[in-house]
User: What shape does this take?
Amino acid sequence: MPSFQIIGTGQLLELQRRLRAAGHENIRSSMQRRVRRAAEPLRNDLQNTVRTLPMRSQGRASGKRGGPSPTKRPFRTSIARAIRISVRTGGSPGARVFLDKGLLPPDIPVGAVTQMNNGRLRHPVFGNRRRWTNQYTPSLWWDKTVRQHTPRMTAEVARVVDDVRRRIE
Assistant: This one.
């Protein structure tokens, strides 16, 4: 799954070096908090998008049996809970919005989210690896959501960098 990052710009790297040299820990933590706050609307929008993502299936063939899901856990909600923000101030400072593989339930592979972003989720029927089915979603939903937030986030991070630069000069 593609993650979205604002990292490694020369301004951020230089600013981090100067903050470390000046010893302004409260300014650095404030900057980190403001960068995280700039990324939160993207994370929230991605979570809402995946929760409300329409999924349609091929439907059941005539004469085929059905039944309740073997799990009680909602699939899309589990994916939404695994979307996280990471803010770094070290070697490559910046913010990253990503899907945390460790927070996904063990029966949901990371590839499932990538497939959903591509518009089709192929999976075994109730875990039966001899029977497979397809479910369809709007394609590139992750990418479209990120593209909508990119200009705002870039502008906000630039504003944060300028504010911090003014405070340490």
About this structure: The chain has a mean pLDDT of 81. The radius of gyration is 21 Å.
